[in-house]
Write a structure and sequence with these properties.
Blueprint: E1 3-11, H1 17-26, E2 31-35, H2 41-46, H3 48-66, H4 83-107, E3 111-114, E4 116-119, E5 124-129, E6 132-143, E7 147-149, E8 162-163, H5 165-169, E9 177-181, H6 185-197, E10 200-205, H7 217-229, E11 233-236, E12 238-246, E13 249-256, E14 259-265, E15 267-270, E16 274-276, E17 309-311, H8 322-336, E18 350-352, E19 357-362, H9 365-370, E20 376-382, H10 387-392, E21 398-404, E22 410-417, H11 420-432, H12 437-441, H13 452-462, H14 472-477
Parallel strand pairs: 1-2, 1-6, 2-3, 6-17, 8-15, 9-10, 9-15, 10-11
Antiparallel strand pairs: 4-5, 5-6, 7-16, 12-13, 13-14, 18-19, 19-22, 20-21, 21-22
The structure holds flavin-adenine dinucleotide and 1,4-dihydronicotinamide adenine dinucleotide.
Length: 485
Amino acid sequence: MATQNFDVCVIGAGPGGYVAAIRAAQLGKKTVIIEREYLGGVCLNVGCIPSKAMISAAHFLHRVQHDAPEMGIEIKSDVKVNMKKLVSWKQSVCDQMSGGVSQLLKGNQVTIIRGEAEFKTAQELVVKSKEGATSIVAKNFIIATGSRPIEIPGFKIDEKEVLSSTGALALDELPKTAVVIGGGYIGLEIGSYLSKLGTEVTVLEAGATLLNGVAERDCVQVVERKLKKGGVKIVFGAKAKSYKKTGSDYEVEYDLAGKLEKVKCAKLLLTVGRRPNSDQANLKGIGLQIDEKGFVKVNAQRRTSIAHIFAIGDVAGQPMLAHKASYEGVLVAEVIGGMNRAYDAKTVPAVVFTDPEIASAGMLESECRAKGYNDLKIGKFPFAANGRAVSLKETDGFVKIIADAKTNIVLGVHMVGPEVSNLISEAALAIEMGARVEDLALTIHPHPTLGEVVMEAAEATLGHAIHIIQKPLSRAEGSSVRATH
Ligand code: FAD
Ligand code: NAI
């Protein structure tokens, strides 16, 4: 077996791994990246990008069907969905993105090896592919092997009867009915677009709320209301137990407060979370420490218990988000490159691409209180009072700012509404820079834009938003008073 030597060996070409490889190469390191499936990882091929492509198409359809007539746009014939064409367009988006990663890696002189990597020792790994086996020796390794869906008893994902997000994103026939087990990120994003395309969706959620611990309760309520209005059924406290085939359909049995209930569907999706791939590639065999949740243990430089091996992205801890993986990729490459770096981000912003979108940066109100911030200023500004939102006919939602009442420093920003995925970065920057609410309120935001809602939410937090009527108390006492919710 031939042996190749490198400075840096990256395992996994997702948004963690490919970014780490490019940055390491930029820093002059002889770098190899090993990928067993697709360049771009879960995110570009079966995660972030395809799901957003499907969401965009479904939102477009919904706008044409529901908003266009009121705007004076008359559609004379039926608007139809060609699922085969839609899925093939979605695939072309993924292929374009994955091809871009390939070009970037090659353009940066990163060696790409296709195959399954497994550590032999802490200094050497073997890559197996159809063509044979290669041995790689490197000074540093970066484990970026990602995660996979969790299964529950009674539901084995086979992408035929029980679908994960991967199978759901590839459906080239629209099911009449679907049951989604798990009302988290994936269940709601996929459930929403299936519903908009015309599927009758039932969400079985074991907990008492959707997106528990991910978003502010009042943000989630806006989405929940709209889902229900669009015909999505949500059953809380429902623990899926088993399913059986009944003709061409499935019957799912679930426990609801100790009673067994049943629901029928044509397609069954299991979206109850993802687990790190730390049980693969012989990570345990070479002695890497893994924590009780299955994440590879890392320090602030993302160094594992073996000093020359690093771990990043989904395999190295929450939150399992692409931009966190990429941040860690750059960080680790720079540590290996001799730069003085450590993980010091104050916030990892998060977006749920429902309708409307939910976005957040910084702490939830409950987290602020748990950290001892008991005196908070909280201000909210609704999209319904924003000219751009009204002209877009997308007025559901608001921006909410939570600040420390003693210093006015921004602790958390939570948004639900149109394009909040594109508005949250301003909030993340504010939190990273330790900005005060006044910094957001006194920054001139162009008109008419959705961004003005962030500025007005800051003004509302200070008690003097212009385009909503705040309580007289706030007016009398000016900016020193706490705004009302
Ligand atoms: P991955 O992207 O999982 O990449 C790991 C790669 O390693 C894979 O390509 C795998 O094939 C390869 N690999 C694993 N083991 C080996 C081995 N032994 N040898 C060789 N190769 C190996 N996040 C967001 O921030 N925004 C979103 O909108 C979003 N949407 C999502 C939608 C869905 C449906 C899903 C499932 C996830 C979504 N995520 C989203 C999460 C996001 O995809 C992950 O956080 C991100 O992909 C993690 O990146 P990573 O580099 O750690 O791992
Ligand atoms: P999740 O953790 O977001 O949600 C899982 C949900 O399933 C929870 O609400 C949980 O209470 C529920 N659940 C668990 N067991 C259950 C059972 N037996 N029956 C019914 N409900 C049950 O997990 P999900 O949606 O699979 O997503 C995995 C991860 O992928 C996310 O945590 C996120 O990190 C990432 N992701 C990010 C996206 C984004 O950034 N927009 C989009 C999609 C995924």
